[in-house]
Design goal:
The protein is mainly alpha-helical and 208 residues long. The chain has helices spanning 5-40, 43-50, 54-60, 64-88, 93-104, 108-120, 129-152, 162-184, 194-205. It has one domain (5-205): Tetracycline Repressor, domain 2. The protein contains 9 helices and no strands. Residues 42-61 bind DNA.
């Protein structure tokens, strides 16, 4: 039997509604994981944040591991899309990194999530261990390729090792995020400017 226009419309509406509900759950999980970490988070509390029943959440994400995977995939998808757009506009990888840090300065929950989970995930038993291991490996490799190109173009300062520079940039970004989060709760001065400090470090390694 052929599908009627009404049936097709209803099915599309149901799919869109389900996708919107999944997005709401992921956003609630981002906040929950960032506040209490993976082990401290509960699916019931995430369901409450999302305004859905616990069984309703389990319909979309049957386990906490599945929800964590969706959260991490969402974070990567957002960042990769933005960096791809920067590349399409002619920006270098390192310039795109600075812009990524600028965007993170407006996404506190995402930064808190990353800071909380990356520390927990150093344990091989953590469900996000493989994700973060791969993330760091890829981040260092791409930064290394960027510094190798600067060296080949004669734009890297004398004596700067591209492998060291790559590790230093990734470490600096992580450290700046921690300092930025701490500074948001401080009444002693303005918050840390992560993008400014990263840009200054990159400029100290390169030649005009």
């Amino acid at each position: 039997m052929p599908h009627t226009p009404a049936a097709v419309s209803n099915r599309r509406g149901s799919y869109a509604s389900g996708r919107a509900r999944r997005d709401e759950i992921v956003q609630a999980a981002i906040v929950e994981f960032s506040e209490v970490g993976y082990y401290g988070a509960s699916l019931r509390q995430i369901a409450a944040r999302a305004g859905i029943t616990h069984p309703g959440l389990l319909h979309h994400f049957p386990t906490k591991d599945a929800l964590l995977a969706a959260v991490l995939a969402h974070r990567d998808a957002v960042d990769l899309e933005a960096m791809a757009e920067d590349k399409a506009q002619g920006r270098s990888y390192l310039e795109a990194l600075v812009r990524l840090v600028e965007r993170n300065g407006k996404r506190r929950a995402i930064v808190e999530l990353y800071a909380a989970l990356s520390g927990e995930a150093t344990s091989p038993r953590h469900p996000a261990h493989a994700f973060f291991a791969g993330h760091y490996e890829l981040s260092v490799r791409m930064a290394r390729e960027a510094f190798d190109k600067l060296r080949d173009d004669g734009r890297l300062r004398q004596g700067v090792d591209p492998a060291w520079a790559a590790r230093a940039v990734v470490a600096l970004m992580d450290g700046l995020q921690i300092q930025w989060l701490q500074s948001l709760e401080s009444d002693t001065g303005a918050p840390v400017d992560m993008a400014r400090d990263l840009r200054a470090f990159l400029e100290s390694l390169t030649l005009d």
